[in-house]
Design goal:
The structure is a homodimer.
Chain A: E1 2-7, H1 15-30, E2 34-39, H2 45-56, H3 62-86, E3 91-94, E4 101-103, E5 112-115, H4 118-125, E6 129-133, E7 136-138, E8 144-146, H5 151-162, E9 167-172, E10 193-195, H6 196-204, H7 212-221, E11 225-229, E12 237-240, E13 252-268, H8 273-283, E14 288-295, E15 300-308, H9 312-321, E16 330-343, H10 353-363, E17 370-374, E18 377-383, H11 387-397
Parallel strand pairs in A: 1-2, 1-9, 2-6, 3-6, 9-11, 10-12
Antiparallel strand pairs in A: 4-5, 7-8, 11-12, 13-15, 13-16, 14-15, 16-18, 17-18
Helix pairs in contact in A: 1-3, 2-3, 5-7, 6-7, 10-11
Amino acid sequence: MLIVKKFGGTSVGDKERIFNAAKRCMEDYKNGHDVVVVLSAMGKTTDVLLEQARDINPKASKRELDMLLTVGEQTSAALMAMALGSLGVPAISLNGFQVPMQTTAVYGSARLRRIGCERIRHELEARKIVVVTGFQGVNKYGDYTTLGRGGSDTTAVALAAVLHADTCEIFTDVDGVYTADPRIVKTARKLDEITYDEMLDLATAGAGVLHNRSVEMAKKYGVQLVVRSSLNDSPGTVVKEEVNVERMLISGVALDKKAARISVLGVKDEPGIAFRLFHLLAKRQINVDIILQSIGREGTKDISFTVDEEEADTVVELLEKNKENITAQSVQCKKDVAKLSIVGAGMMSNPGVAAKMFEALYSARININMISTSEIRVTVLVDEKDGEKAMNVCHEAFGLAE
Amino acid sequence: MLIVKKFGGTSVGDKERIFNAAKRCMEDYKNGHDVVVVLSAMGKTTDVLLEQARDINPKASKRELDMLLTVGEQTSAALMAMALGSLGVPAISLNGFQVPMQTTAVYGSARLRRIGCERIRHELEARKIVVVTGFQGVNKYGDYTTLGRGGSDTTAVALAAVLHADTCEIFTDVDGVYTADPRIVKTARKLDEITYDEMLDLATAGAGVLHNRSVEMAKKYGVQLVVRSSLNDSPGTVVKEEVNVERMLISGVALDKKAARISVLGVKDEPGIAFRLFHLLAKRQINVDIILQSIGREGTKDISFTVDEEEADTVVELLEKNKENITAQSVQCKKDVAKLSIVGAGMMSNPGVAAKMFEALYSARININMISTSEIRVTVLVDEKDGEKAMNVCHEAFGLAE
């Protein structure tokens, strides 16, 4: 078997954890498997490097930021190869240049274009464990690029795809994918299996286990993902196309407290206003989530939408600047809101799921600000103070508890 | 003009020093010059990384050590490019892969083979300051290599050579090359000029300002070196082929306290013994300095030589193991010794320099253990406790004081 194993920053945060991860790799190796390990930077390294850069130049070029950040994974990869070496397992570390992981030219949020397999295959044939730096690649100018958030997961899935790996294990600090965040919902239950689509909607809805880019890629190339704990031997959660067991109606509840609601009030009720508004945001690569349009007073309308809390100030500033262009009377921002989502493939063939959710929230006296739905997901915006309670009542209403 | 500027670890040790160095580069840039900057890793970064590696695997492979160490210069290079950016100067950082700095395959002590100039020239033509990682390169397998001690100086001189730079400035924490270490000899004087050969002998004799590999290369390719302080505007010391001023007899005194004397006693007085002995050391890449052979008792002889103090234990162990092969009766090691050297191109045409040195030491009641001379250098081995006094009396005897 060819196994790709990815360890996140906390899973290689110190010497003990590095050895712990190395031993997991050694087990598979000793059982005769080929092992490729993908690593993130150790612990908070990336944040520390970013802080260092900001201190020197708050507007540092993204090219130089990538040049700086890539040292994080190179450090953990080299140390991992040394740890494997000290366990008597031949290992070699390769960075974005050496694989090579060719990407688009965009610094800070590059996309993978082509991955060279020759060197990796050569080292695997020589019976080495190959340790690859996650998150990074090299563009056509021969410069380092980084893949943006969740980049190391994407590296692992992409490598699993091009190497036709039998499985891609994502090691993290939780046991797998849960029906809800166990820190908030005490009765949350670990799922044995989940479909790509459900995982995708959960990821988008704020469940931080996997980044949706990596799940999208896994779905596209049919890579079987396993989300496992780096701290114990629990089998984790398998993410794949179809799941075998009788489906629950809902597989999980996710809460995203980092949402902000922007309201653009009193815009003229004429065609093209919404286009102009969201085009402004799209040009700045700002992701907009739930959108709601309502009738205002005297031939005007109000447009509300949610964005990532971190981007809220930028959005307000941008809209204030373009107030005339979008014919707005005022722009408001509310940051103390949370997005609550229920996700489940079973939803498609069962009407009334949304109604059941609304009922549960109503019984708990929780007010719903906005609503958005997809085929297998219902998302509502609630006040941030109600978020955790809302998550618990939904979890209970759909019988997700252990 | 094309100027190569090299800053050592202490000269980029923190934010303030990075900006200080960046401003020196900006001055030349604003005066219309092309500037290439070569950097070492910040402060003690390399030591910290080595310690981290040792903690994980004391016998880590040299390939992985190089993979780890190269992050040091990449970090300082990226931060320097950001600092220049924040000063409004366009800059780009390039690592060993990107230049590329092609080296031999030996990890940990690679030699430069070929340097690609295309990318650097391209960036200089776009009026950018090019920041290059010192100390590192890439071998034919596409792996990182490091150049060993003094590697960043070598990188700077090599770049100056291939780019046909007008001058190569080595910034350090001293004002230039002194007639003696000012911490030991209070009256030491800064030299305005010095020849390659003198600098080479001073470097070999333990004056830590420049590594002899970089001086050798500068001499070979006729690169004019300037040793300057990164902390002030003092003009520093120019190192070149010929110096114009009327030559002093001696240009400097150097003291190396990190020497150890190894004595191999009672070896048979027959041909081939010395060859076998030093061949053993050469195979291990151990540098031997002063060698002395004397007649022992009953048809035997004693061979003494000096090595770097750090390698003394290895040497003793090696010789003890091969005692029979080299026909030695015993091996002794004395670590509390120091090498004192006087260096000066004027020596060649002035006999009696060595005698004058011995006289000065005799007057100060300092015992000489061993003697070695070259065309422009006299080195003696003294007890370590006498080292600093010996340096002072020689400095005075040759009238080097200010």
